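Figure 3 (text version): C-alpha cells given as input.
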C-alpha cells in the first residue's frame, strides 16, 4: 500500500493520498486476476484428490498417490481441460464436510476421488467424478487389475472423465494417453516411492529419492521418467547441498538419458534444461526449455525454472513474462508471485511488486495451513512479509523455519536475506556465514541478490565472498 510516514516526538504516523490508494487497489486487483488467470479461463477444471488406501496394512500411500498423480498427468494432456496442480489438489481432505467449498476456492468445477485396495496380488481401484457446484455424482467406475494393466486402467479413467465432461480428444491427445512409461512394474513401484520422497524437498528426502530412481533405471534402463526424476534429484543436490562436479555431471547425464529414451517427453527436456542451467551452455538451455514448453505448454516446472534462469542471467523482463506464465498455469503456487516481485521492483513497477507479494504471502499462508512443515513456504513467505513492512510477522515465520532445519544451507542463505531486509545485519551475516560453512557455494547469488545490498562493503560480507569460488 502506498503510504508516507511522518516521524515526530512521540510516535510515527502514516498517510496516503486517495489517488495513490485507488491506483494501488486497481493494480492489486489486476495482478491477482492476471496471476490467477481468471479473465480468460473458460475450460472446465478438475481437482484430483489423494486416493484412499483401503489395503489391510495401510502401507500403500505412495502407490495411491502415484495412481492419482498419473491420472492427473494424463488429464493434463487434454487441452480442453484445466487440471488443478498436485500440490493444491492433494491438500483437499476427502472426509471434510467443506470439501466442495474448498474445491470451488481452487476454481475446480469437478472433483475426482478414488480408493485403492491391494490384496493377494490383485488391485481394485474405485473412482468417482463429482460436480463441485452441486455435489452430484457425474461418473463412477471400479476396476479390478493384477497391476500388469495399471497403465491401461489409468488411460481408461482419463478417457472416461473426458467423455463425462463432453471433451473431444484430438488425435495427438488420444495417442498421448496410450503411452506407458515402463513395462516393468517393479521399476514403476520404485519410481512412485522415489517421487513420494522427492516431494519432501529435504536433503535426506532427495537422497532417498535418488536411490529409488537409480534402482528404477537399473530395472528398466529405458524408463525415461525415472531418468528425469534422477536428474532432478542430482540437480537439487548440486543446488542445495553438494555443489560438486560429480553431482553436476550426474544430473546432466541422467537428463540426457531421459531425452534419448523419450525425445517427446516434456519433463525430460525440462529436466535437461535445469541441469544445463547449473553450468552455462546458454543456447542449449534455452532450446531445451522452449522444447519442453512446445511439447507441454502447461508444464509448470518448465515455466518456473526457465523464469529463474532468466532472472539469474539478468534478463528481468523475460523473467517477468515467464513467471507470469507460471502463475497462469499454477495460480495457487506461492513461489512465482513472491519471486517475480523482485523483478517488478527492479524494473520500476513497485505497485505491481507489492500486489504480487500480497498475493504470494496469502498463497503461502494457505499452503502452510495444509503443509505446516514446508520450510520453503515459511522462508519465502517471511521474505515477502518483511518486504511488505510486516517485519515482526516475517521474523516469526523465519524463526519457525530455522527451528525445523537449523543446518540447511539454502534455508540459512534465505534467512540471511530476510534479516538483511529487516535491518538485522549481524543476524544476516551470521546466517550467511553458516550457509557457506554448510556447503553453499553460489557466489553469483551473493554478488547479485538485491536483498543483500545493505550488507555490501562490510568486512564480514567481503570475507564471506572471499571464501566462495
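Below: residues designed for each position.
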Amino acid at each position: 500500500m502506498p503510504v508516507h510516514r511522518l516521524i515526530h516526538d512521540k510516535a510515527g504516523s502514516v498517510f496516503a493520498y486517495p489517488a495513490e490508494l485507488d491506483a494501488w487497489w486497481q493494480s492489486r486487483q489486476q495482478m491477482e486476476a492476471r496471476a490467477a488467470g481468471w479473465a480468460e479461463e473458460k475450460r472446465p477444471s478438475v481437482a484430483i484428490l489423494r486416493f484412499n488406501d483401503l489395503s489391510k496394512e495401510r502401507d500403500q500411500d505412495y502407490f495411491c498417490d502415484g495412481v492419482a498423480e498419473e491420472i492427473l498427468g494424463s488429464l493434463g494432456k487434454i487441452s480442453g481441460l484445466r487440471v488443478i496442480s498436485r500440490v493444491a489438489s492433494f491438500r483437499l481432505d476427502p472426509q471434510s464436510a467443506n470439501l466442495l467449498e474448498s474445491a470451488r476456492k481452487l476454481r475446480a468445477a469437478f472433483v475426482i476421488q478414488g480408493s485403492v485396495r491391494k490384496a493377494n496380488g490383485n488391485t481394485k481401484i474405485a473412482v468417482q467424478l463429482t460436480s463441485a457446484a452441486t455435489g452430484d455424482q457425474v461418473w463412477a467406475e471400479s476396476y479390478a487389475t493384477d497391476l500388469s494393466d495399471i497403465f491401461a486402467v489409468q488411460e481408461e479413467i482419463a478417457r472416461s472423465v473426458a467423455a463425462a465432461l463432453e471433451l473431444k480428444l484430438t488425435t495427438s491427445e488420444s495417442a498421448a494417453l496410450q503411452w506407458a512409461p515402463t513395462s516393468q512394474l517393479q521399476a514403476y513401484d520404485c519410481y512412485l516411492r522415489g517421487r513420494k520422497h522427492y516431494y519432501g524437498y529435504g536433503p535426506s528426502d532427495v537422497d532417498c529419492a535418488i536411490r529409488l530412481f537409480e534402482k528404477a533405471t537399473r530395472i528398466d534402463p529405458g524408463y525415461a521418467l525415472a531418468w528425469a526424476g534422477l536428474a532432478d534429484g542430482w540437480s537439487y543436490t548440486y543446488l542445495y547441498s553438494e555443489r560438486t562436479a560429480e553431482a553436476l555431471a550426474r544430473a546432466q547425464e541422467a537428463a540426457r538419458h531421459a531425452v534419448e529414451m523419450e525425445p517427446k517427453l516434456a519433463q525430460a527436456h525440462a529436466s535437461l534444461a535445469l541441469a544445463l542451467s547449473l553450468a552455462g551452455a546458454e543456447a542449449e538451455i534455452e532450446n531445451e526449455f522452449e522444447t519442453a514448453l512446445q511439447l507441454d505448454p502447461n508444464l509448470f516446472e518448465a515455466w518456473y525454472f526457465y523464469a529463474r534462469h532468466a532472472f539469474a542471467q539478468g534478463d528481468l523482463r523475460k523473467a517477468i513474462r515467464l513467471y507470469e506464465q507460471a502463475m497462469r498455469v499454477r495460480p495457487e503456487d506461492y513461489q512465482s508471485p513472491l519471486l517475480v516481485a523482485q523483478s517488478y521492483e527492479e524494473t520500476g513497477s513497485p505497485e505491481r511488486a507489492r500486489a504480487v507479494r500480497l498475493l504470494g504471502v496469502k498463497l503461502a499462508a494457505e499452503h502452510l495451513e495444509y503443509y505446516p512443515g514446508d520450510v520453503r513456504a515459511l522462508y519465502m513467505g517471511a521474505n515477502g512479509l518483511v518486504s511488505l513492512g510486516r517485519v515482526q510477522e516475517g521474523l516469526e515465520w523465519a524463526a519457525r523455519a530455522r527451528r525445523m532445519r537449523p543446518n540447511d544451507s539454502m534455508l540459512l542463505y534465505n534467512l540471511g536475506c530476510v534479516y538483511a531486509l529487516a535491518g538485522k545485519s549481524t543476524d544476516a551475516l551470521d546466517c550467511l556465514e553458516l550457509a557457506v560453512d554448510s556447503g553453499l557455494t553460489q557466489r553469483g547469488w551473493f554478488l547479485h541478490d538485491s536483498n543483500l545490498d545493505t550488507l555490501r562493503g562490510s568486512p564480514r560480507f567481503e570475507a564471506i565472498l572471499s571464501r566462495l569460488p
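The first strand starts at residue 4 and ends at 7.
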